[in-house]
Amino acid sequence: MRVLTEPRKREDRGVISILETVDVDTGIRTVLAEFEDLIEAPNWTQDGRLLIYNCNGCIYTFDLATRESRMINSGFAIDCNNDHVLSPDGKKIAVSHHTLEDGESRIYILPLEGGEPTLVTPIAPSYLHGWSPDGKTLAYCAERNGQYDIYIIPAVGGVETQLTDLPGLDDGPEYSPCGKYIWFNSTRSGLMQVWRMEKDGSNPTQMTFDESNSWFPHVSPDGKRVAYITYKKGDVDPGAHPPNKNVEIRLMSAEGGEYKTVVKLFGGQGSLNVNSWAPNNRTIAFVSYRLKG
To answer: Which of 83, 101, 171, 285 could be 141's S-S partner, Cβ–Cβ 3.0 to 4.6 Å?
Structure first.
């Protein structure tokens, strides 16, 4: 059992966090570590050496060789949520940090080795999900005038561009490795389903059609497969992705079609919010949970 040191902000759902990987071809799960603290949303670095996750408002690295964690110095950004993404060159990390002035989530970028964050989205709330392969653009979910839609903005900051405007919740935008598409999830057809659109927001295409609520599509590095997390129909509202539920991680071709269930787990919020594919295109990192007591 691992207990993190120097937590800046404690959030406790009454669970043990279990950092795991799964081989999507064999279904074999490997437990890397258990934590008394709530951890969420592992990213995998391009060199395959580290996982990046959030805990108690801060961002940590987990060394896969030593199984040790280290907190990244994120300056004043010490109230980060589970929306964090690595830059395509692996040198920076973008985070969603709840700012002191109003508690709303805004997007910042800082060096992966640590340093002072730079503000990207002055308008809030903004929840990060994707970084374009060319490194120039961030994609995120944002609430503007009571409606949650998908927006993009230059990574250096600037004017945001709205890509979706239909009724319902659009969330989880993530670029395909080729940069042509943005994958996202939407309630526009009733249940939460996985969709894909051109990077400019045109030609939205529904990619899942099953009787589940499907969230956070993550494309493998080679662009061939997509992993996502699902809740049972009727277990949650289509627009909700709460913790402490029985959920599944599913896998499908990037061209759509039939899916297969890779993992059944107790989790949901925090388990698979960000892209956690390993560079080998075969392994996914995720967090499952176990109730304390």
So the answer is: 171
To the nearest whole percent, how much of the chain has pLDDT over 90? 95
Answering whether pTM is above 0.85, one says yes
Q: At 249, which CATH number?
A: 2.120.10.30
Residue 9 belongs to some domain of the structure = no
The number of folded domains in the chain is 1
Domain that holds residue 145: 15-291
12: confidence class by pLDDT, cuts 50, 70, 90: low
**pLDDT tens column, 189-212:** 999 999 999 999 999 999 999 999
**Dist. CA 256–CA 276, nearest whole Å:** 20
Summary mean pLDDT of the chain? 95
Residue 234 lies in a domain: yes
